[in-house]
Each structure stands twice: as structure tokens, then as C-alpha cells.
UniProtKB/TrEMBL annotation:
<dbReference type="InterPro" id="IPR006037">
    <property type="entry name" value="RCK_C"/>
</dbReference>
<dbReference type="GO" id="GO:0034220">
    <property type="term" value="P:monoatomic ion transmembrane transport"/>
</dbReference>
<feature type="domain" description="RCK N-terminal">
    <location>
        <begin position="280"/>
        <end position="391"/>
    </location>
</feature>
<dbReference type="InterPro" id="IPR013099">
    <property type="entry name" value="K_chnl_dom"/>
</dbReference>
<keyword id="KW-1133">Transmembrane helix</keyword>
<keyword id="KW-0813">Transport</keyword>
<feature type="transmembrane region" description="Helical">
    <location>
        <begin position="6"/>
        <end position="25"/>
    </location>
</feature>
<feature type="region of interest" description="Disordered">
    <location>
        <begin position="307"/>
        <end position="327"/>
    </location>
</feature>
<feature type="domain" description="RCK C-terminal">
    <location>
        <begin position="448"/>
        <end position="528"/>
    </location>
</feature>
<protein>
    <submittedName>
        <fullName>Potassium channel protein</fullName>
    </submittedName>
</protein>
<dbReference type="InterPro" id="IPR050721">
    <property type="entry name" value="Trk_Ktr_HKT_K-transport"/>
</dbReference>
<dbReference type="Pfam" id="PF07885">
    <property type="entry name" value="Ion_trans_2"/>
</dbReference>
<keyword id="KW-0812">Transmembrane</keyword>
<feature type="transmembrane region" description="Helical">
    <location>
        <begin position="37"/>
        <end position="56"/>
    </location>
</feature>
<keyword id="KW-0472">Membrane</keyword>
<dbReference type="InterPro" id="IPR003148">
    <property type="entry name" value="RCK_N"/>
</dbReference>
<dbReference type="Pfam" id="PF02254">
    <property type="entry name" value="TrkA_N"/>
</dbReference>
Amino acid sequence: MRRMRVPLITLVVIFAIGMLGLTLIPGQDDQGQPYRLGFLDAFYFMSYTASTIGFGELPYPFTYAQRLWVAATIFLTVVGWAYAIGSLLALLRDRSFRAAIARAHLARKVARLREPFLLLAGYGRTGELLGRSFDALGRRFVVLDIDRDRIEGLDLAPFRADVPGLVADARDAVALTVAGLEHPRCAGVLALTNDDEANLTVVMAAALLRPDLPVVARTAAPLIAERMRAFGEPTVVDAFAAFGRHLRIALRAPASYQLTTWLERGPGAELPQRGEPPREGRWVVCGYGRFGRRLTEDLSAEGLEVTTVEPSPDPDEDTPEIIGDGSDPRVLARADLGSAVGLVAATDNDAANLSLVAAARRANPDLFVAARQNRPDGAPLFAAMGVDALLVPTEVVAHEVYAQLSTPLLYRFLGLAAEHDDAWAAELVDRLTDLCGRRLQSIWKFRLDRGRAPGLRAPLAAGRVVLGDLLRDPDARERPLRAVVLLVLRDGEAIPAPGPDLALRPDDELLLVGRAVARRSLDVTLVDEAAATYVLTGDRVPSGWLWRRLTRTG
């Protein structure tokens, strides 16, 4: 505001000079006697004259001397107003001033938040996917991004609640503080930019300013990941490592891979196809960058032979077996795709990956093809190509973060699911599809305590609550609820996909997947003692106080 100091002082001086002149120049009253304006009359006249309202000459008509002075001051005030308005418009167009106003506005919005929220540093494709998922869960979040268009787009996005956003660099610790890093309601920080150094800065700021806050950061560089882990215990998500881990699960247990990817995508996701990656034979990896090297290590760890192809290898890294463009027929001939069982198009160029897939399909139609999609606008092309396994780094990161933050029990279940055999996962997928359909329904959790399950307090204490009975319709006990219990957490011990004969105990925590109507019915059982008695024993008991008194009297 210092830039407006001189224009405002100029206006004040012009007004003061005009008022002073009006009080010094004598006028005449209606009797022809000398009359001088007081300071209040002079101020009043200057005010309505300067604002172009123009009530007239008050309280008496002016003399010629007064009119000459007023004419001079009118022109002088026009110049003063033009100078002040021009300075104000220039100030409003100034980027730093607008940024300061935006920061102050965001600070007020964040200060008014009275519910837990997440701070998203970076609102690219990953942040957008997570924002939609968190909004569907009813979780609030604040966005910080360096791209002005992304922040302005928040006002047009169909979110249920207002999403505060700030245009700023994630490296700016002050901006992180303004966005709510030190707010007592901040429940977590997500470093999701496409700049590893910026994500590292966010991790450092969170560790130093809020060491108790959970932090999730994105990076594909092992060195940056190690630096991040030097600051507290952040959760580091590497899309390349996650894809390689998923591919290894798919090689060993296709049903487990199908189950985990389905649950990671969140409610509304369609059940993915159960692929059958070849478990024996030779694979060809075209693109020996960070992703290609990581994937080669994962395939080799599964005992598979891998042939690597790279047109411009890094002199500081391992040399690929074949140097050349993978889309060149002569290079593909050297890779001998006819004898290979799988191909991975792992370059950072979507056009090159699509070309590799097309050339590989011509050379060997039976190849299992995996590809890396770098840009979201290439999705229709990869879908039309019919790739068997597709890596979209932004979506992989979004799914990993969602699984960790949406429901911590879900992330724990996914880790346990990978330890079970494929038959166990296939049976669970069948149960889910039979009860809930092929589109993933709601995921929720609850604890069997006094606050959440008052209707089960006595049966739980007596050990008479069996999981299979609990999941019955409180209106018609013979109908099972369309819900599946994924996990029961008891005294820190996790029981994945428990059977219907599991006896529940007080303070057990349950993770379920099911339809919304099943969730509402289960809520009735948990709260209503009469409904709980019916689903557990089949006996109908009076639910109201009056009916219970009448029953006892009879």
C-alpha cells in the first residue's frame, strides 16, 4: 500500500487547499453583507463538488472571486483524482499485490476451517484425482500449486465443499504456512508436484514445522527418496516401484493383483480384467531409463530373462543389451520378439511407446504387452491399442495415496492380501461380486465400542456376536446384507477376510465393502438393541419404552 501513499496525500492536499481558499475568500449573504464560509461548509462543498454531485453554491450564491477559486480547484481535483485512480488501477494489476491479496484471502479461509483437512502441494493430474476422491469421502483439503489456471479451476470444479487454493511455489515455506501447514486442523500433507526438489522441500518443511504430521511424498528418484526419509518418517510413493511390485504380484497371483488394483481405485471403480502375464520365458524392455531399470530388476527377481533396448543409454548407468530405437524393425529383429513372451514399452514418449506396441503386435501377436502412458490425453489411444498392462504414473500415485489416507485399514489389508495365495484372493473377489456387483461400492469402517455400537453392548460382553449373524438384514433376518468384511483389527492383530463364524469382541474394528443400503441397515443393528437382538437370535422384542413396560406388565 506504500505505492498509494503519494496519490492519497496529493488528494488530501488538494482538498485542504480548496477548503482553505473557500474559508479565506469573502462572500456575500442575501442581505449583501460580507460572509465567510466555515471549515465545515467548505468541506461539505468540496465533497459534493469533487464527487460530481453538484448541489449548488451553499449557503449563498458565490461571488466571482469564490467562483474563480472553485473553478481552479475543480480542475486541480480532476488531476488529483486521475492520478490517484491511475495509481490504484496500476496497483490492482500488479502481480505481487494480487498475490498478497490472494494470500490474505486464503489465510482467512483456512483460519475458518473447523474440521480436519489435507494440504495438497501440487494439483496436477494426481492431485485432481485425489481431490475428487477425498471430496467424495467428505474430506476437506487445501490446494497449493504454481499454475494459476489450476487454482482458478477450483472454483469451477464440482466439489461438494469450497476448496481453498493458493498460487505459489511449493518450495516457499511461508506459502505452506499460509496454506495451513501449522493449522491445528491440518491432518496431513501430500507433496504431489512433478518436481522432486519441490516435494523434498515440502517434506523438510513439514518435518521441521509439524513433526507430528503424516506426510506422503511422490518421487521416482532413489536419492531423493533417501533424502526424504532423513526427515522423520514420510511415506514415499514411487510410481515405477509400485508398477513393478504390481507386475510381480500379477505374475505370481493374478487374482490378488485384480483384487488389490480394484480396491485401490476406490468406490465406483469397475472390476478390472484378470490378466495372465507369462510366468516363464523372455521379456523385452524398450526404454532403459529409471522405469526400465526398475522394471528389469523386478522381472529378473522373478527369475525371468530380460532383453533391454535403449537408443541413447546413460554412460553412468548399466549399458542395455541392444542400443537402438525400439520402433526400428531392424532393432526389433535383433530383440527377436518372435521368441519373447512379453514386451514393455517403457520410454517417456507416448508416441514412441504406441509405435513400439504396434510394431511388437505385428511381429508377435501373442506377446503380453505392457506400456507406460505419460500424458493423460493419450488415454484413448492406449485404450484402443488394447495394452495388457498400462502404467499411468499419475494414477498409480493417486491410487497408492488414496489407499493409505482414505482408510488406513484398507492399506493394511492390501499389504496382507499380497501375502495370501491366489485361490484366497479369487474366492474373495467372487464374494464381493456376488454381493456387491462388479462396480466397487462404499468402503467404511467402525469400532464395536459403546459410542458406535450401543445396541450390541450386552451381546458383545457375553461373547454372543458372530460375524455372520451381524451381517443380516434387521427387517428380514434370512436376508444377508450386501456387504463383505475385509478386515477385523483386534488388539493390533489383523484378521483378513474373516469367515462368518468369527466371534466378535468389544473394541474390534471392522473394515467393510458394501452397498449403501447395507451400511444403513448395519447402522440400525449397531444402535438399536431390539434390531441387534433380532439379527443375532431371531427373537422379536419390543423396541420402545412403552411397549417394553406393557410387555412386562402382561
